[in-house]
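FIELD: query
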Amino acid sequence: QVQLVESGGGLVQPGGSLRLSCAVSGFTLDYHAIGWFRQAPGKEREGVSCINSSDGSTYYADSVKGRFTISRDNAKNTVYLQMASLKPEDTAVYYCFRTGYWGQGTQVTVSS
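FIELD: result
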């Protein structure tokens, strides 16, 4: 059974950092790209970052480029999203995604 479970969200002050984790089961990261999306209150879900399965190439939305870093540990079946220099506008529920499957999300709140 395919599952994606996010963790690591929380409350952080502007300028702070958080690392989100997406632990996957029921498949291996060797063959599937994984993406991070986020949805802020009253807004549509938007893509944040993704990492390719074959060569580890990465993509970032312009709004997070230079501040967020996606990585994966195939041995741990986990994908990470390291977030730095956080801004209030990064506040959202963050979801990880594999084609056909979503995690339950983890809340990130950036506020002083």
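FIELD: remark
The chain has a mean pLDDT of 96.
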